[in-house]
UniProtKB/TrEMBL annotation:
Gene3D superfamilies: Periplasmic binding protein-like II
SUPFAM superfamilies (UniProt xref): Periplasmic binding protein-like II
Protein name, as recorded: Extracellular solute-binding protein
Superkingdom: Bacteria
Pfam families reported for this sequence: SBP_bac_1
PROSITE patterns linked to this entry: PROKAR_LIPOPROTEIN
Length: 423
């Protein structure tokens, strides 16, 4: 599973773990930060938890921070994604948190609601240095809790040879997208575009369509869900059309399958993050590089894509709060993020990093950089795991013809209102 799916799977499985335990006094609020962080060298021990590949390779980067701050020492604990959510929740309940933890972007609202996270100190970083959609993943009720560390976004992967043979170019609009996917199917693909027919994490594919149509998940004041709207209906109907027309097969391709079917031409296009570039170049062999490309997602009123990634948060119980925030600040600097990409292949969260030739001159990474200027995450609410699971379930009923779009959206709205935002 990729880092989006893994983090979200853990969240969905454990979303209720914090209920009735640990802190219950809600987010700490904008005045709860313990003061500004100075520019003096960091000192003392810093503990940080990081998940997946990040946890395995962060120590390599941390040694550079230690070289620049010789009186500081960074201890990195690698935590498997599968146990990360529960481990963080347990550490909060027991008052035994590390200084810093990496958080999946959809976890911030939940853990901020416990009161365990310290708001980002004023002046630590400049909000304007980050992609707007990425910065928003750290913000709960107008208060930032930590900073974005790395980002992911989705773009369209497509077979250039098949598109050229069909006489079509990368689509920019919904109408072009429909024609494009049909053309690739006519060229021999079993699926002109591969889309999940509902089920786990399929909300990540349909929510951008609602955003592109001008809709959103919450009302402007953040108090009401807005699934029973024309924009969400338009998104659901458009998504459903690919299955109704036989352009997308109603099967779910798991990790490993999508790469091989794309390489053998069974899948003409699909949406994914930057990690797939390396996988395709490796598995497809040297000749396959000329047979695929990436493009920004097609759209309606906008071309908004989904954004995910990982954030860094400091706990209120940190034993070395000053040094912890200095490490977070250092990890957020463009030069550090460029270095981090070379170690981890994680995309930078700061816009300035993309001026480097590593990104600006790369035919794949430059597209991701452009897409990040129009990308969005779900609202940072404590109940998002439960609400998104309802979207997944109802979307699957729609694509399989078991319910109408209107009934599905009415059900999502009713269940979301029952679940609430957790605020």
């Amino acid at each position: 599973m990729n880092r989006w799916t893994t983090a979200l799977a853990v969240t969905a499985a454990s979303a209720l773990l914090l209920t009735g335990c640990g802190r219950t006094d809600g987010p700490a609020g904008p005045d709860a930060s313990k003061g500004a962080i100075d520019s003096e060298p960091a000192t003392g021990d810093i503990t940080i938890w990081a998940m997946g590949n990040e946890g395995e390779v962060l120590k390599e980067l941390a040694t550079q921070f230690e070289d620049a701050n010789p009186d500081a020492s960074v201890t990195v604990t690698a935590v498997p994604w599968e146990s990360a959510h529960d481990r963080i929740a347990t550490s909060i309940a027991g008052g035994e948190t590390p200084d810093i933890s990496m958080l999946g972007t959809t976890w911030v609202g939940e853990f901020a609601a416990t009161g365990a996270l310290e708001p980002t100190p004023e002046g630590l970083v400049d909000e304007g240095d980050f992609f707007e959609g990425s910065w928003g993943t750290a913000v709960v009720d107008d208060v930032a809790y930590g900073v974005p560390w790395y980002v992911d976004t989705r773009v369209l992967y497509y077979r250039t040879d098949m598109a050229e043979a069909a006489g079509v170019e990368a689509p920019e609009t919904w109408d072009e997208y429909t024609a494009f996917a049909k053309a690739l199917k006519d060229e021999g693909a079993t699926s002109g575009v591969s889309l999940p027919p509902g089920g786990f994490d399929s909300w990540q594919y349909v929510a951008p369509l609602a955003w592109q149509a001008g809709g959103d998940i919450l009302s402007e004041d953040g108090t009401e869900f807005t699934f029973d709207t024309p924009e969400w209906k338009e998104a659901f109907e458009f998504y459903k059309s690919f299955f109704d027309d036989g352009v997308a097969e109603p099967v779910r391709l798991e990790g490993g399958e999508i790469e091989q079917k794309f390489i053998d031409g069974s899948v003409g296009s699909f949406f994914s993050g930057p990690f797939h570039v390396g996988l395709l170049l490796e598995q497809g062999g040297p000749d396959f590089a000329d047979k695929f490309a990436v493009a920004e997602v097609p759209g309606d009123k906008s071309r908004t894509s989904f954004t995910g990634g990982g954030n860094l948060a400091v706990f209120n119980d940190s034993e070395n709060r000053d040094a912890a925030w200095k490490f977070v600040r250092w990890l957020s600097e463009p030069e550090t993020q460029i270095e981090w990409y070379g170690i981890s292949t994680d995309l930078p969260s700061t816009e300035a990093a993309y001026d480097d030739a590593t990104f600006s001159e790369d035919p794949y990474l430059s597209v991701f950089a452009d897409q990040l200027t129009d990308s969005k995450a779900p609202p940072a609410i404590a109940t998002w795991a439960q609400v998104s699971a309802v979207i997944d379930q109802e979307l699957e009923k729609v694509t399989r013809g078991e319910t109408s779009v209107d009934d599905a959206l009415a059900s999502i709205q009713q269940q979301a209102e029952s679940i609430g935002t957790g605020q």
